[in-house]
Specification:
mainly alpha; Arc Repressor Mutant, subunit A; Four Helix Bundle (Hemerythrin (Met), subunit A); 2 domains; two-stranded antiparallel sheet; 10 helices; 2 strands; globular
Amino acid sequence: MAVRSSSRAKKAPARPKAAGWEAPRPTTLVDHAVAAIVSGASRGVILPGDRIVEADLVGALGMSRVPIREALRILESQGVVTSLPYKGIRLMEMTHERLEQVLDVRSSLEILAVRRALEAGRNRPRDIELLERARHELELAQRDDSYGFALADAAFHRQLVQLADNPVLSVLWESLARQVTIIVGLATLGKPMREIVLEHDLLIRAYAKGDVEAMVRELHEHIVVMAHGIDFDAIIEDRRPLRDAHPA
């Protein structure tokens, strides 16, 4: 006699998601506007202290005011642009004081991250492989412009911070990421990209050894000391006539 099938079909068990994978987030017009503004600042198309006019961006980017306005709001919340009465919206200044503030906070966050990561023993071969992969992308980005290189640099340091496995720390670091991207992009206009790539080799070597204090010293050297060796005032002044001669 035939067996009557159950009226309730059995559901196949849900497959667990592969660890480490995230569904891609759709890119919006706001995302495009944010990226375009940061890219322009990283490449010296707009310079620190320059006024940013919505109407100019509408024409340059070919989109309406709505996504541009939202993009500027996001960038203002991250310190990339400022909005003051009677002065309008301007790209962040690159004064010695402002640079010192950004470097101080950034270095403190990354030093805390590597301390926690190394204390937890997260310098295993698979952890080093993640850093080596990010370093490889940085090397490939030397063929790109300053913005592409700065994005790859940020990706390396993002990976370094993520090894701490502290979401709060990562969120704080991300709040500075776009300011840092602009700083690194401008730095490449006065310093060979190859030198910056080689500095990351020193970071990976120190991290792989697991020596916390050595890693702290290398990070301070890479983030603070090396940045102080770059004359951002000269880079900006050299770039200004080129920018004015070939406006975006």
